[in-house]
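To assess whether the prediction recovers the assembly geometry, we first specified each molecular entity separately, as shown.
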Amino acid sequence: MTTTQLKTLARETSAASMHALVYHGPGKPAWESHRRPAVQDPQDAVVRITTSTICGTDLHILKGDLPAVTEGRILGHEGIGVIDEVGAGVSAFRKGDKVIISCITACGKCDFCRKQMYSHCRNGGWILGNTIDGTQAEYVRIPYADTSLYPLPASASEEAAVMLSDILPTGFECGVLNGHVQPGDTIAIVGAGPVGLAALLTAQFYSPAAIFCIDLDDNRLKVAQSFGATTLINSAGGNAIQRVMELTHGEGVDVAIEAAGLPATFDICQGILGAGGHLANVGVHGKPVLLHLEKLWDRNATITTRLVDTVTTPLLIKALYAGKLQPARLVTHSFALGDILKAYDIFGNAAKYSALKVALKSL
Amino acid sequence: MTTTQLKTLARETSAASMHALVYHGPGKPAWESHRRPAVQDPQDAVVRITTSTICGTDLHILKGDLPAVTEGRILGHEGIGVIDEVGAGVSAFRKGDKVIISCITACGKCDFCRKQMYSHCRNGGWILGNTIDGTQAEYVRIPYADTSLYPLPASASEEAAVMLSDILPTGFECGVLNGHVQPGDTIAIVGAGPVGLAALLTAQFYSPAAIFCIDLDDNRLKVAQSFGATTLINSAGGNAIQRVMELTHGEGVDVAIEAAGLPATFDICQGILGAGGHLANVGVHGKPVLLHLEKLWDRNATITTRLVDTVTTPLLIKALYAGKLQPARLVTHSFALGDILKAYDIFGNAAKYSALKVALKSL
Amino acid sequence: MTTTQLKTLARETSAASMHALVYHGPGKPAWESHRRPAVQDPQDAVVRITTSTICGTDLHILKGDLPAVTEGRILGHEGIGVIDEVGAGVSAFRKGDKVIISCITACGKCDFCRKQMYSHCRNGGWILGNTIDGTQAEYVRIPYADTSLYPLPASASEEAAVMLSDILPTGFECGVLNGHVQPGDTIAIVGAGPVGLAALLTAQFYSPAAIFCIDLDDNRLKVAQSFGATTLINSAGGNAIQRVMELTHGEGVDVAIEAAGLPATFDICQGILGAGGHLANVGVHGKPVLLHLEKLWDRNATITTRLVDTVTTPLLIKALYAGKLQPARLVTHSFALGDILKAYDIFGNAAKYSALKVALKSL
Amino acid sequence: MTTTQLKTLARETSAASMHALVYHGPGKPAWESHRRPAVQDPQDAVVRITTSTICGTDLHILKGDLPAVTEGRILGHEGIGVIDEVGAGVSAFRKGDKVIISCITACGKCDFCRKQMYSHCRNGGWILGNTIDGTQAEYVRIPYADTSLYPLPASASEEAAVMLSDILPTGFECGVLNGHVQPGDTIAIVGAGPVGLAALLTAQFYSPAAIFCIDLDDNRLKVAQSFGATTLINSAGGNAIQRVMELTHGEGVDVAIEAAGLPATFDICQGILGAGGHLANVGVHGKPVLLHLEKLWDRNATITTRLVDTVTTPLLIKALYAGKLQPARLVTHSFALGDILKAYDIFGNAAKYSALKVALKSL
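The predicted structure of the complete assembly is given in tokenized form:
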């Protein structure tokens, strides 16, 4: 081999590899070298990640709670990046475009996509970092790129924009829209973690009169207050329901947003729901809950569940540019992408470190 | 006292008494003489009952399941009659008008009435035959008559119209409207008793493509078929969910209407609900149910409860006159009002007698 | 007659008279002594006016544009006051309560009221200062008081609250709600008079991304900017449509709110409406307009008209108390009620005096 | 060249040519030989037409009313066929599949497609037989096949199914859905041509109480009656408005569907619209109309326009299979595709021949 040949080989090898966070079974993530993804189908794009983040779901995967995620999988379903390569069928993007990666992959063609329920896309849905390799990597392959990526101006704040991959549309669609928050309403958000705060931020699009925030952690409640909550209730004492009923003169709330995914928080929601109210479940539940139909059957209640469809991403982008939304406030810690294991440690011990979302930046 | 005076007294005494079905505690109804009601408030009307009926809720009361109903109460919340007397504040009706009595009394002024949620009227709601005397009597006092009665042409079928007091708006509002039945939908009605059949009749206003009817009783299923059900499923074998999933190629239904009020029937509903589907609870539940949020959290499900508001009574009257609705088909047995105890026996043993609704007619 | 008798007579005479603005034909208003109104029907209340105001419609009446208004009529349909007397059928209010008088009188019983379309109430609607005596007086009789008045805490700002009689629900219902303003939308308000500004204030309940305000008067545009308009367009040059199309890159707006009532302003609205957009007419029109269906037929446009129903008054009260609404900013001039003719002069020459709404206060 | 070579050439030449209806300028259509279309883009499909039809719009094109249609264009935007060839990017269809061709081509990716407003697709919309070659041909190229074609079982009636290309979704979406037809409503359809009848058929999905049909042609009115119209009004006498107002006791209708595209028919619609009513424009208008805002401004009216989005095609297919829809009743005449000029003659003189839609069948 000549020197030139060797150099080319080195460059190609380098070009063909990257670093990524690979799941090697419960409790065993590794930041390691991995083959760089390439376009496989005409609708694919390969995106070079510039900012990523970690979701609570990623922690569940690392605990082994999601058996669909198999060993060798690159995790992560949120990210901002730059298009590196597109398949022949991609028309909306070209190499060099900056994009928001949606946590939901949508083929745009199936019956669910055609009623905007991308979450249940027959060819996509939540697959990134789940059944295909994800965004906690230097590069990621995005199927159905035209309908799964959103253009982002080069000047946009990536820390803000990466919140639009998942957490903001989740809080907005599953909590605020499903909850039908209206001007003048009294609403309650049960759970002040990142997704509850995302609901809190976006609920204010509709000017509710009062926003109760309920959590066990005074620090998170303080953050909620700074984000716009009007009344803070620490549920540690077990009297959150009683407190809300007192504050609402026995009427209960118009909207209760469940943002924790626990039987106890769902119980609070059903206990404080006013007649004609909406209970919007956002949390990921691992167990059934006891639904008190013997009390609720005549209460004209609406209870909703939803996996985020990311159908509001364009709306959120417009709100972001109009200055109606400050999602970067959700980011409490920043790391180099290569320091992702440190980031996992901080994010996995969120209460201890007063952490909300982390930003992971490529250098 | 002169003879004339005595005659007048007799007439007045007669005028002031009537017969009514009085609740004397669990298992103790009596058809007996009772003081005839009179106008108490300016918004009151007194209605002479010409047709009444019995509701499943009346059976619950007689079993002692509703402790709010105290001894001495006249039962019944459904009826057709003729206005006998109106208070000074009643403007929409006058003596001699034929009316449908709504099972829900609406003041028309409170915040709930003003958002058409009459079920939760702060001054009314379901009070007839519950906290005030009801319609299983020769006369009944109706508070807020202008907003709790509906005019009925003298020529209308009373057997048909009495179904509009409660059962039809209940099936329609709680089941069909809350379930958002749409043309082309595949829907399931779980429970083929009177309220399930009322949902079945009114669901057809919206032209669903397929209507599965699920019940334990083959006789009721046959009736459901004659009312328009397209597929009958006897759930006795315990495989109703599996059957529906097979029939829908694993997709589940667009709308599941719970019309029995039992944990088992609610379970069927949540088991057959397609992604993005609506579960509309109509049944009166006495116990909590296990809600499988661990399966439903990402299914984009909507679950609703409702006490009938009777806000659609005018719509149902229009449909009735237009020949779009044949509610008299729900009436399987007719009795003289004075034979109401026999009617209770038949209605209380509905399966044995193949009974749906009974008509009680004054002579 | 004794001295005591004479004094009583004087007091009663005084009690039975008041001052009011009486219409004596086009151009002939008079502030004069008038018999004080009394309860006529059981649902009536008599309200002592503490704050009133003038509407653009009142100017039209004075010009003779509304022939239904006959000589001798007391004008005005907006006001805050204190209940002085209630009829036997009034249950929600008692003497001494402070109230907002709705410009729309609603019987609460008719078919229109029962679908919340109070504007078309068969027994009421807009009658105050139109077909019955109005609120530009020391006292006013309000029919159907329970459903036509709203309670106001004694501590509330009357200048703010009087904007809830008409102008705010008009801008909100006819403009913002009918226009379906959504977060992220680009909207245009054509006409920056009081009702356009009311639409501007309440549109912000829904967090639109951009609010274009279009008017001929730079002063009003400056006010609009201080109220939240993001882009100001003076239409004097005749190129408002072109300017909006440039600013929206040829797309047009999501919502166009017509708040002037002129063919020219309606034309601007139809000229700037994006595909799928909503044109919400708020203005009172005296002439037909040319609707360009040859351009609009395939544009998926929705055009709405509406007389305010005041169905959102409770919502607006909640928003007011929650600090989400600052309607007192609409009040540019204050007068004693007795100086109402001066107030008409200012309000009738609004451009000259930079006037928006006036407050008329009893002393 | 050998004999074999010559035969192959002949076959290929034949394979590469077809017959089609080509527009050669106003009044000059020709059924002539034309190069057969081929896949140009990966999302394309080529469909062999088995059934086509003619639309009123095609007559307008032939009159020269649509200057965007240039000489040489193959007309037609409706059809049933069999997939002959698909591009590499087509995943939902393969050669041999029977399909319904939508009159609207939808890329499925643009902002309009992603809010289901396919009519305004940035890459498609109504292009077939307009800006690209259409379906009145033996073969047609369909761009974005996955989102512009619908699968049809081999056993389906093609005469029925071809009505789903355009006329049925147009009547349904622009007329019935935009008009918000509800059970119990009184509706009027102005214009009993094919699209008015399509609205009539699909309005019955929602069980209106009364359907007035208004037209100048008694024959069409008779057809309307057989399709379900409850009241027929011949507007020739000029008193259609008066007649509707009498029949509705001065109330007007809940929904007025304009299905003719003329100022006179639009006038009838605005003249009969009840307070709170919906005027749904379906007709294609060539001129502006006078909108009587001086009467409508306070009538709480909603006026809509729409180019069909064909978003309801899947719903209509479900209704068709469920037997809820008999669209083949719209087909009055059948021809061989090669006899299309005769078909144009019949369809272009519809009144004379009592024609509604024609079916053009390949042999």
